[in-house]
Amino acid sequence: MGAGISGDWSVPETFLLGPDTRQIDLALKLYSGIEHLGIVAPHGHVSPALLADPQARFANPHELLVKHDHYLFRLLYSQGVPVEALGVGQAECDPRAAWQTFCSHFHLFAGTPSGLWLRLELTRLFGVSEKPSARNAQAIYDQIDARLGTPEFTPRALFRRFGVEVLATTDPATADLSQHAHAQADGFNVVPTFRPDAVLHFGRVGWGGHLKTLEQFSGRSIESYETLLDVLRQRRADFRAQGGTATDHDARQVALAPLPAAEAERFFGLALQGRLDASQAAQLEAHALFDQARLSAEEDGLVMQLHVGSVRNHNPLLFQKYGPDMGSDIPQQVNWTHGLRELLGTFGNSPDFHAIVFTLDESTYSRELAPLAGHYPALRLGPPWWFFDSVLGIERYLDAISETATFYNTVGFNDDTRAFASIPARHEVWRRTIANWLARQVMRGILDMDDAQRLARLSARELAVQAYYFDLPSEVNP
Amino acid sequence: MGAGISGDWSVPETFLLGPDTRQIDLALKLYSGIEHLGIVAPHGHVSPALLADPQARFANPHELLVKHDHYLFRLLYSQGVPVEALGVGQAECDPRAAWQTFCSHFHLFAGTPSGLWLRLELTRLFGVSEKPSARNAQAIYDQIDARLGTPEFTPRALFRRFGVEVLATTDPATADLSQHAHAQADGFNVVPTFRPDAVLHFGRVGWGGHLKTLEQFSGRSIESYETLLDVLRQRRADFRAQGGTATDHDARQVALAPLPAAEAERFFGLALQGRLDASQAAQLEAHALFDQARLSAEEDGLVMQLHVGSVRNHNPLLFQKYGPDMGSDIPQQVNWTHGLRELLGTFGNSPDFHAIVFTLDESTYSRELAPLAGHYPALRLGPPWWFFDSVLGIERYLDAISETATFYNTVGFNDDTRAFASIPARHEVWRRTIANWLARQVMRGILDMDDAQRLARLSARELAVQAYYFDLPSEVNP
Amino acid sequence: MGAGISGDWSVPETFLLGPDTRQIDLALKLYSGIEHLGIVAPHGHVSPALLADPQARFANPHELLVKHDHYLFRLLYSQGVPVEALGVGQAECDPRAAWQTFCSHFHLFAGTPSGLWLRLELTRLFGVSEKPSARNAQAIYDQIDARLGTPEFTPRALFRRFGVEVLATTDPATADLSQHAHAQADGFNVVPTFRPDAVLHFGRVGWGGHLKTLEQFSGRSIESYETLLDVLRQRRADFRAQGGTATDHDARQVALAPLPAAEAERFFGLALQGRLDASQAAQLEAHALFDQARLSAEEDGLVMQLHVGSVRNHNPLLFQKYGPDMGSDIPQQVNWTHGLRELLGTFGNSPDFHAIVFTLDESTYSRELAPLAGHYPALRLGPPWWFFDSVLGIERYLDAISETATFYNTVGFNDDTRAFASIPARHEVWRRTIANWLARQVMRGILDMDDAQRLARLSARELAVQAYYFDLPSEVNP
Question: How far is B330 from chain C (nearest CA, A)?
Fold first, then answer.
């Protein structure tokens, strides 16, 4: 029996591969061709502050691994562990106590992507040799904590060690980009991504405050939609100047459609007065998103990322207590076929427009997104997002899109993480799963080995370089 | 080649396992740990009368296996076999002739869950050694019929033989629970489940009659919604007193939302006058369901089961002739994310509220239900329901929910059957399929054997014990 | 390692089978029983002109394989290859230059159904021994072109060589059926299918022109809906007289519902005046489709095919330039449960009505279509359509429908192609994939070998013969 079956916690060579033994052999061969490729991380939520300051340190194991990871605490919460017991949302907490609680419930992560990432991270990075439990929690804390205190475990040292070629962060329209500048000045390729959600979600609580922040930042009084658009245009230029190549937008539904200019101004006026109703807010947001697409297509060429379908803060109790990102964002159905029609009808044939879409509604992959990406030159499919960035999620994604859109209309992998130390683990799960999936296709004669090796390399690194227009060497000839 | 491939009809040791040989070995190991566990049957439609009376007998093979099983006659009907030819809906019929028709078409069940259950049932329970056909129909009838006449084949004897630890039936609000009392008095753990659909489906034909029955049963005149609620409150107490731990509700859409009290009363008044329109009926039903949830959360702690998404009696011809349950209930899309929001926003964080949901819209598992159950402590996922209680249905379910919700937020298995003799077969298909699925994950290093063994035992028995708060020993430490 | 893994381009015996070696053995056994069965092609888009005229020839490799295949040029278009560079939509083009462009991008088809079909077609039919590329493009062109000039490669010769027992084309209501008559007179079993979409899509641009054509063809002035219906009734009789056994209907949504006669006439009057709004057009189309069903059920017994869910011509640029069928038809969600209710409630129990449905919304297979087809005797499921006529698409289809609807409520395979030379390749992919899927079920003991062999033969040929009422020998006893 393979090493995966034994009780120990080291990661076997065949991790995630199989089940067929011949498939494992082929998958290992494919994986060996991509295992050591550099990491291209075109979309994520790591703080640029980590790389800006050579003195930045991870405070402790709890801060590094638990406190900010809503993948972890949402699952523990569902099983009756209060977020407070994990130190989440608390100004002060005892990190060792919270870590103890976390480890005591580690069995709950069996079979989850978080469980797999943590296994890779804890064993590879921190040399942990046992699965966490109530019994060994403090010993593991000590072991990780000791390493965090060494020069080899600063964010910058890890950045080098991980082989990160580029890391794109996600930043609000009001981001001063000095942290990116500092990181870059010291040779760390950290670039910003323009995410103006806060000032484009017109109907949401707090919008006025975000607009005010933007006014202060830009030194302009924003009394019309036109002015807002112009301020954002300038900010996009700032992001580009700092190495940014993309924008990002979160929306509940797929809606991008222009309004007559006067109507947009009227709605914006209502927004300023706090009198916008839900329908008007949705229309104005769709108008503004369409304008962001127009800027991409006609002015600055920034790649437009759309993350659509998450109903944010579904749980009012946690939202009222602790705000957003408490693990209660829940997906809903989306309609890409209709929602993208105006956008793609206008810019979808343009060689200067590039959209990348992310969905939480898996049923849309084969029905809508693969046919759309398999036709429009402007459209590419992002990798499985969030809940679906998992072994089975990746396999379903490949099954759903490979025959219609093909790998060539995808953008490889995004780790999409705020957990810096998990980046290599996430890329490894992707690469192993891709290799294993391709191996199955080779075994059935659906792909030959040449194609499989090319697709493996494309998916592991090249497609991301190309789709995000990073200035990095690109090695794969089609 | 394995025994499953030969022509004979005995059930091989490796039934449903594989296809990989190493996977089979592991699956057998996992299955051996759960094969002999007692049966916990927390949701089903067996009549309590079978266990109430020591003299109860199964009339004949046709009555036992065909006449009441809409899984069987719907498929035969789709292939041109009139339900009348199967004795269905007939006051009188020739059971041998109907049995002959059934066996003549047995090949149609190849690869269906009914086919698998019948194979297990006929071979294991009745010693049948050949697949049914036109040729051997009467001989098989004789063989089964002879056994049904023996003391070993009374419902009570089979209950013991099957190792049923608890059987929950599904009962209307007007159920006198004396049959449960009789069964319990003689040591058969048969408990009721409170299903008040008939009096809460305000807009349906026949509602007035059901309300009248409830008035007679309770001895109260129900002229207001408030009174109805109070009568139901009392009935819930009666069910609890008789060992019931849960309620159950069938709905076409996910809708639970309170109305202002006066509005609810106004709609109820219209319902009494038969003047409720469809929208009002839906609102009143959503209000009443919300109140049932409130009773669970705030008063009696009964676990709330929601079975949502079946369009009942799609075929008007069969409904007019023979009434409901004629095999023409057809699923539709449901929206859990929005439909549960008010409910979970109100009670979803409470340790005293417990909801279990069942869906016929598989696309909701990964998109909505797993994220919801992977966050709210009050929510658990029921096993695959109805059409999806099948080998491939179970595998898709596990693939869809295991990474996000995890097994820990499920409730194990429900056989959901009205066919008493099929209970062990259904649990066996579940247990074998679970074992095989877990074996695949172990082979790939996604689970280790300890976790897999724990999850197997949880799924086979413990999760059901815990989720339904049965007073039974619980053996698995997490 | 198997032959599928080597670099050469011949098709290995185990093509598409596996991955498990024992599964491959069983699949080969099953495949050997169906490999040589005649081809029944009950739905497709081949031009009858090809078989009508003994002098018909394929012009050249580009015309034969690229120019009319929107599966190919949509994918190339998505990767930045202008359709013009492929000679698509061009009155004149250099076929060698277009072929060169095509071959230069052949790597894009890795893993797609088009790639698999082309491999079978090029190697088996034309003896091509290398994968197409920029380097060998002209040599391959020469090789194919040389064969096309020989008597063995006329459409009629290929028809014989392919073993086509019957080929049903798809024809408008205005088709003079002389080409079918010519083909049949010379012993080629080519039959028409009645597809009156053009005159029943009342709201679409060009409807008036199509109606005029029908008036000219029929010699009748069509000033009322009733007259239109009568003209269509006559045309259906013409199609039947020429061997047609089915109708076909394309619709964006599932909608078949009668209007009051006066309302239908009123809407028709508005249509003639070009004043029909979108809602009225939809209602009138639903009414007209219902009437076509009525004609099937009550008058002529033609099998009704419904292809529902494609949003045609999603890309306005290509539509304006080159018209329909430019590879930008995009699927959307459909609702079969509600959309078919009136139809099945009226005719679904009739032994004289036969509907075959095709979906592009895979989520409806397990949720709606399998339960519907597993109940109503009038309903059968068409094979995976379009994007889903692929190895993984077929496997998902079988997984989704086999347990609830069973193979018996399907209609086997349709190649649905306008590429005549690809017919055997498409049937081979279907047959191999079916054999492999059945082999897996046999290995797990879900099917026995007898059942698997029967289902293989049914799926490969017999179900199509039966469902379309072709006058051909039928060999499989149930």
Answer: 6
CA dist B446 and A5 (Å) reads 9
- Contact criterion met (CB below 8 Å) for B156 and B54: yes
Q: Are C454 and B107 inside 8 Å of each other by CB?
A: yes
Q: Helix, strand, or coil here: C190?
A: strand
Q: What is the pTM of this model?
A: 0.97
Judge: C375–B80 Cβ closer than 8 Å, yes or no: no
Exposure letters A432-457 (e unless 16+ CB within 10 A, then b):
bbbbbbbbbbbbbbbbbbebbbbbbb
> Which residue type sits at B225?
Y
Q: Which CATH class is domain B155-467?
A: alpha beta
Q: Between chains, do C315 and A444 touch, taking CB under 8 Å as contact?
A: no
With CB atoms and an 8 Å threshold, state whether C387 touches A404: yes
3-state DSSP percent of chain A in helix, strand and coil, to 5? 55, 10, 40
Helix (H, G, I), strand (E, B) or coil at A17: coil
Q: First-to-last CA distance in chain A? A: 39
Residues whose CB is less than 8 angstroms from the CB of residue C419 and which lie 6 or more positions away in sequence, other chains included: C64, C65, C68, C69
Shortest CA distance from C376: residue in chain B: B78
| C-alpha span between C283 and B422 (Å, rounded) | 47
Three-class DSSP category at B251: strand
The alpha-carbon gap from A113 to the nearest alpha carbon of chain B, in Å, equals: 7
Question: Looking at chain C, which residue has its C-alpha nearest residue A454?
Answer: C107
Q: Is A163-467 in CATH node 3.20.20.140?
A: yes
Task: State pLDDT tens for residues A31-60.
Answer: 999 999 999 999 999 999 999 999 999 999
Q: Is the dihedral of CA C242, C243, C249, C250 positive or negative?
A: negative
Distance (Å) from the alpha carbon of B400 to chain A's nearest alpha carbon: 8
What stretches of A7-91 show up as alpha helix (H) in DSSP? Answer: 21-32, 49-52, 61-65, 70-78
Phi, psi dihedrals of residue A153, rounded to the nearest 5°: -115, 20
Query: In terms of Cα–Cα distance, which of A266, A256, A263, A279 is closest to A379?
Result: A256
Question: Do the two domains B58-153 and B155-467 of this chain adopt the same fold?
Answer: no
Give the CA distances from residue C84 to residues A373, C71, C104, in Å, rounded to whole numbers and listed in that order: 20, 15, 15
- End-to-end alpha carbon distance in chain B: 39
Beta pairing partners, B247: B194, B304
* Residue A129 to residue C402: CA distance in whole angstroms: 46
In chain C, residues with a C-beta closer than 8 Å to the C-beta of B14 are 445
> Which CATH superfamily groups domain B58-153?
uronate isomerase, domain 2, chain A (1.10.2020.10)
Domain ranges of chain A: 59-153, 163-467
Contact B375/A327 with Cβ under 8 angstroms? yes
Residues of chain B above pLDDT 90, percent: 96
B399-445 confidence digits (pLDDT tens): 999 999 999 999 999 999 999 999 999 999 999 999 999 999 999 99
Handedness of CA A235, A240, A241, A243 (dihedral sign): positive
Can you tell me the mean pLDDT for A149-170? 98
CB–CB contact A20 C16 (8 Å)? no
Is the distance from CB of B381 to CB of C385 less than 8 angstroms? no
**What is the Cα Rg of chain B in Å?**
23
Q: Is C195 exposed, middle or buried (0-12, 13-18, 19+ CB in 10 A)?
A: buried
User: CA-to-CA distance for A473 and A465, rounded, in angstroms?
Assistant: 8
Q: Which two tokens stand for residue C259?
A: 């209007």
Q: Cα(A207)–Cα(A371) distance, rounded to whole angstroms?
A: 36
The ipTM is: 0.97
CATH topology of domain C59-153: uronate isomerase, domain 2, chain A (1.10.2020)
Subunit contact A363:C363, Cβ cutoff 8 A: yes
Contact list, C454 vs chain B (CB under 8 Å): 107, 110
